[in-house]
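Design job #97: recover the sequence.
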């Protein structure tokens, strides 16, 4: 660690890891398809690691993080570092080498479901959730971590190894499904886990490591007294280990809350605070007992958004913090995993917007520059403030938002709508459908690329998309689905597609951000007032509907999800920006209805994802989020059926908010946790609250290669019918099918239809009795 007498330190808490040009994505997918040897995949990973720590050291950072690379997911990596292999995977260990066994847990195969994919603390990143049981034994497997450490050390670069903290590792895990086993609390394994961390500490200390970083993001959420007590016990033990490096504990993604006082009172040497997400005044920080003797990693640079920091305001704030904590390191609030690599690769973002952007490389520069200014004072070039950016404003958009009335967020009562929709749609009980996307074929990706390059006319592009839509409609008719979709073949991504067609958004060419594994997206940049110049999906969905007598469901991304999965402007309250987007989507929904579309799905998974991690602000967030959805969907007639697609939450206030959305049908991401979701829905119904409209709990995992059989789907649908009543039940997967192959998709959907028909026959037979 840097001595404070040499100046203030600088560091980041993590860095993007897919490669500046998505080298890892291409290598992974080539390996999975059998066209790249394992040795070459490993070489790509090693090259990304080595370039990263070399480049970070060359920037002038005084501390370089290590062990941040992953071939798929860092949470899974940490579980395997400590030997936490779920019991259900053990039979396959002998037949696979280490890397393929890792990918089995991450990706699964037709006969083995992967670990559950779970969103990571309100970010766009997803992790594979470790599975633990009461008999889990931990053991240390540090070979990859130590190999990277040694390569850096050979270049005279001392890394700060980054680990997921022991308490967050347990809290982010789930209880594995062990036949006959009783339920248990994953935190009960803490006493088994801590000695293995101590074992790793000893190895690192003997290797020459002076600091290790333990990330405890679980403690920026609300935690019970028992969980806080476990946190305190963990760091009392780890901080008194006989041989260890200094310990840095970070609280990324929000307010560290009570955990800050616990750490300040412990023997832990350093604490990292996400001051970009939750700014603490120097006076309030000074009130924390013991904080003055800690090294403070001041996370003033935002690791989750792409706007440059105001360096003058930030430097003034850092000077105040340094008076409280003289041993100060300027840092990012979170890992930079959530932002793209380099803004300088973007060549057509409006100049006054581009000038205010900072991707990962630029954020490292901000950290180094602030630390130098804090030590030496601002340089001459600091005297000139950056040019004031005037975000794009439209008077008509602002006036339209101000003119919104409560009536514009209200539809006819549900029972009135339900009757009108039954007459208009004439759907059978337990109708079977999907939630939107079908596989993106290579020929469609190529057509989209050629259109963007100007090598394909729009008329020819339209013909190719229409051919794909027709094939998708015919396949669904043959499978026997009751409500069809057009397949979203024209869409590169559910967010980017709409962002490209809305005013107020900028999109990037190379701004890739990892979602999980080889999956990456380019989040749009919302920089100005939002409006819709022209219809966005009517052409494609209207064409699909013209091909069939069955209803074709339109899929539109909701306003809250558009915000959650974009880099959002910071000069306007989120609720006002949400209403701007909602009004644009409202126009689209009304145009779809006019084009003869009778079912419209407005996807809002981010209503759950954006929920503040702490109680403060949750009520206000849910209020405006629900209001934005209702504004987007309340312009249609009662006979038009509004669907939504959400991530389920057992929190009562979220369930209440989902009910207040007033969607006619709510599809739920629930597959891998369907048992507790159905139990919660049943308890809600018996308790007199919960979802009272149509419900489609996802009965198979859309992101898994596994093909569910008919009996399994029948069992899930039957349980769902008992939980929500069969007259409100829909049969669907838990998400879009974009990432699947047709050889996986077709049998899965045929089995879904067969299972739905079984349940339907039983429902009809019971009604006749």
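Job complete. Output follows.
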């Amino acid at each position: 660690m840097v001595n404070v007498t040499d100046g203030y330190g600088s560091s980041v808490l993590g860095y993007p890891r897919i490669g500046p040009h998505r080298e890892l994505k291409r290598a992974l997918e080539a390996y999975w398809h059998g066209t790249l040897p394992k040795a070459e995949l490993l070489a790509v990973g090693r090259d990304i690691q080595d370039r990263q720590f070399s480049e970070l050291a060359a920037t002038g950072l005084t501390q370089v993080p290590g062990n941040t690379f992953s071939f798929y997911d860092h949470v899974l990596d940490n579980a395997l570092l400590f030997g936490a292999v779920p019991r259900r995977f053990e039979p396959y260990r002998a037949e696979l080498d280490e890397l393929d066994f890792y990918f089995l847990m991450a990706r699964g195969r037709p006969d083995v479901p992967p670990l559950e994919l779970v969103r990571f603390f309100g970010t766009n990143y997803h992790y594979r959730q470790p599975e633990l049981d009461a008999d889990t034994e931990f053991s240390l497997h540090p070979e990859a971590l130590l190999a990277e450490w040694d390569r850096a050390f050979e270049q005279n670069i001392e890394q700060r190894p980054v680990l997921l903290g022991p308490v967050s590792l347990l809290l982010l895990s789930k209880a594995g499904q062990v036949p006959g086993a009783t339920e248990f609390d994953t935190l009960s394994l803490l006493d088994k886990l801590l000695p293995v961390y101590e074992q790793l500490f000893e190895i690192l200390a003997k290797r020459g490591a002076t600091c290790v970083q333990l990330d405890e993001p679980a403690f920026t959420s609300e935690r019970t007294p028992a969980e806080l007590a476990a946190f305190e016990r963990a760091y009392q033990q780890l901080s008194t280990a006989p041989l260890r490096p200094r310990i840095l504990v970070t609280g990324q993604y929000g307010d560290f809350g009570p955990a800050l006082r616990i750490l300040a009172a412990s023997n832990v040497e350093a604490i990292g605070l996400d001051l970009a997400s939750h700014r603490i005044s120097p006076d309030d920080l000074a009130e924390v007992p013991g904080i003055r003797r800690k090294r403070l990693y001041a996370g003033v640079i935002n690791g989750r958004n792409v706007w440059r920091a105001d360096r003058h305001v930030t430097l003034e704030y850092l000077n105040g913090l340094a008076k409280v904590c003289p041993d100060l390191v300027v840092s990012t609030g979170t890992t930079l995993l959530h932002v793209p690599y380099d803004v300088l690769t973007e060549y057509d973002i409006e100049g006054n917007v581009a000038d205010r952007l900072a991707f990962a490389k630029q954020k490292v520069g901000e950290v180094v520059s602030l630390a130098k200014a804090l030590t030496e004072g601002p340089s001459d070039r600091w005297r000139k403030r950056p040019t004031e950016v005037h975000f794009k404003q439209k008077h008509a958009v602002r006036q339209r938002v101000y003119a919104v009335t409560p009536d514009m967020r209200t539809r006819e009562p549900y029972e009135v709508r339900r009757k009108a929709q039954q007459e208009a749609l004439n759907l059978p009980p337990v109708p079977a459908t999907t939630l939107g996307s079908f596989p993106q074929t290579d020929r469609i990706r190529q057509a989209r690329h050629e259109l963007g390059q100007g090598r394909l006319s729009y008329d020819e592009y339209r013909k190719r998309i229409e051919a794909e839509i027709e094939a998708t409609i015919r396949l669904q008719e043959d499978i026997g689905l009751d409500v069809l979709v057009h397949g979203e073949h024209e869409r590169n991504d559910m967010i980017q597609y709409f962002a490209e067609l809305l005013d107020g958004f900028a999109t990037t060419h190379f701004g890739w951000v990892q979602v999980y594994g080889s999956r990456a997206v380019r989040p749009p940049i919302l920089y100005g007032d939002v409006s819709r110049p022209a219809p966005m999906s009517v052409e494609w969905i209207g064409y699909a509907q013209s091909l069939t007598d069955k209803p074709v469901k339109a899929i539109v991304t909701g306003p809250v999800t558009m915000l959650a999965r974009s880099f959002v402007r910071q000069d306007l309250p989120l609720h006002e920006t949400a209403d701007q987007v909602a009004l644009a989507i409202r126009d689209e929904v009304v145009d779809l209805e006019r084009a003869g579309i009778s079912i419209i799905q407005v996807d809002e998974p981010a209503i759950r994802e954006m929920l503040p991690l702490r109680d403060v602000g949750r009520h206000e967030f849910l209020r405006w989020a629900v209001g934005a959805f209702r504004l987007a969907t309340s312009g249609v007639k009662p006979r038009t059926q509004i669907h939504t697609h959400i991530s389920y939450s057992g929190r009562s206030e979220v369930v209440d908010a989902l009910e207040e959305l007033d969607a006619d049908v709510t599809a739920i991401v629930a597959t891998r946790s369907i048992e507790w979701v159905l139990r919660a829905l049943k308890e809600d119904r018996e308790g007199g609250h919960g979802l009272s409209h149509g419900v489609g709990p996802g009965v198979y995992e859309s992101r898994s290669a596994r093909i569910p059989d008919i009996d399994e789907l029948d069992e899930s649908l039957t349980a769902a019918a008992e939980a929500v009543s069969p007259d409100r039940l829909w049969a669907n997967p838990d998400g879009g099918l974009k990432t699947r192959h047709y050889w996986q998709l077709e049998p899965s959907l045929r089995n879904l239809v067969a299972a739905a028909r079984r349940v339907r026959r039983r429902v009809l037979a019971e009604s006749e009795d």
